[in-house]
Amino acid sequence: MGTTTPRRASPSRAWVGALLVAGLGHTLATHAAADDSDRIATLEQKLDQSLQLIQQLSARVHDLEAQVGQGNAAAAAKGPGPAPAAAQPGTPAATQPGTVAATAPDTAQRLARVEQTVTEMAASAGQHAEDIGMPMHGFADVGVGNHNAEFPQYQGADIAELDFFLTPRLGSRTRALFELNFEVGSDGSVGVDLERAQIGYQFADSATVWLGRFHTPYGYYNTAFHHGQQIATSLRRPRFIEFEDHGGIMPAHTVGAWLTGSQRVGDEKVTYDAFIGNSQRITDGKLDMNNAGNTHGSTIVGANLGVLLSGALDGLKVGVDAFQTRVLDDDTPAPAPPFATRVRSYGAYAAYDTDSWEDIAEFHVFDNDDLTGHTGTHRSEAGFVQMGYRAGHYTPYARYERGAFQQSDNFFSAQDNGSSYYRTALGLRFDVDLVSSLKLELAETHLTDRDISSYDEALLQYAIRF
Amino acid sequence: MAGAADLSVICNSRVPLTAGDVRDLFLGEKQFAGAVKLVPVDNSSAQSVFLERALKMNAAKYSTTWTKKSFRDGINPPLVTGSDAEALAYVKRTPGACSYVTIATPADVVVVARL
Question: How many A-B residue pairs are in contact by the CB < 8 A criterion?
């Protein structure tokens, strides 16, 4: 390797110390978990008592219904005749077995009212969640480290993002998903992004078409996790598939149309995606997905085909994907016309997700044509392998990732993070509870062409979902 | 609480499902039965037994699976009822609804599977 950037020992040690202190917070979390267990036990006890009461009431209703049935049978046996005098509610006559025949109509009415009331109560309880109408979910994470996990030029504490996603209940076939993200950008300011705004129509289980801005369905990771850091085992995304505004070199979002679905074929399940949308541009060294459209009508088109296996390979998904787009470099110095590159990406992936293991491998090849300088085709590659083992609340994981990007290819050389690199990372995820997790990651990153340098990272993240 | 009791997966009378559909139904993979939009409903009083027997997973994994599903596909997890009676009432009156109960099932619902 080439030169290595000098490491500032003191601040790093300070942050590592801070991470260790934070790790000790685990003990507090354990105590909190014990308190939760007590509360849960108490609630379970109350629930049991409530259920017993419901069972007793149900049995009582059942008995009364049986009595009414016997009364009707007796009345039928007696034949037509004058209606018996109605018993007053609550009087012994209303419940004495010997007088059931005489009070059956009134009892039946009362039972009908009780049943209606119970049904309404049950219905209102059961429908409560449905009536919310606009379920809102979200993710958030904060962190600390000797570098910033997303912007390594910074160190210290950071607020990463606050992400809301809304899934309003519409008609039986119309669906919508909106994702609003508040995140800190590379200049430290808080920006708001409409990460996803997609409205779709579901023809069947095997076909839904979405229009709007969506996660580009390449590979596995981009659609499986995206902004949901709490549901991702690792502390951050692989560098080359970071979000565009965080320096990712692949189009994480597309504005256009997306057809997706799945179909069982025997015991296996086949999944597919096909999409078309606005092609991207490079501006200020970053990819932009052209939310408002582009001026030349170019498109990105792509597809993803996967298979979920069963039997001994249950939990394993394998697939391939490809996309093509035409990217203009708006940073090209005037008066020259913007550099244009036809980007072609071919990918393959495998993900093994079981109770114990979460292993992901993803690999992409780029065959890019220079449409302006006519320097020919440039081939680049990127990929990662990540392995995690779920052991109760703890999930240790390891990841190796590498990007080998031709710097003679304007598509990569024009992007701030388009330099080649490799990174190794070891991490430990601790699930504080079902919806929050603490992650510690130690990583080493080597930049290998445009810049030749390396840096080590010790990062801590607290991530939640709600 | 439901223990070793029989568990019945029930659906509204107009829902044509089979036992093989139960897993996909409660994991959001199957949302239609013909033209009928399916409405899976969890029954919290029997959920742990159901998850263990039908889906072979615990509540934590079930929740995480639905979070991922909802995040990717924009669909919502099943509604939750608090008892067998509530689940039964909801299924009886809601076209496309399916749930699971540990009590005897009336004739006006379809028993899709007994677990």
Answer: 85
In CATH terms, is domain B8-114 a member of 3.40.190.10?
yes
Domains of chain A: 40-130 (no CATH), 136-156+200-465 (2.40.160.10)
Tell whether B35 is within 8 A of chain A (Cβ).
no
State pTM to two decimals. 0.76
Beta strands in A233-338 (DSSP E): 253-265, 268-278, 281-283, 286-288, 299-308, 316-329
Ranges of chain A with pLDDT below 70: 1-133
Contact with chain A for residue B41, Cβ under 8 A: yes
A129 and B79 in contact by Cβ < 8 A?
Answer: yes
Q: CA–CA distance from A378 to each of A117, A336, A340, A419 (Å)? A: 72, 22, 13, 14
Cβ-contact A405, A380 below 8 angstroms: yes
> Tokens 């990217």 sit at which residue?
A327
**ipTM of model:** 0.88
Q: Where are the domains of chain B?
A: 8-114
Give the integer Cα–Cα distance in Å for B45 and B64: 20
Amino acid symbol at B83: S
Distance from CA of A445 to the nearest CA of B (A): 29
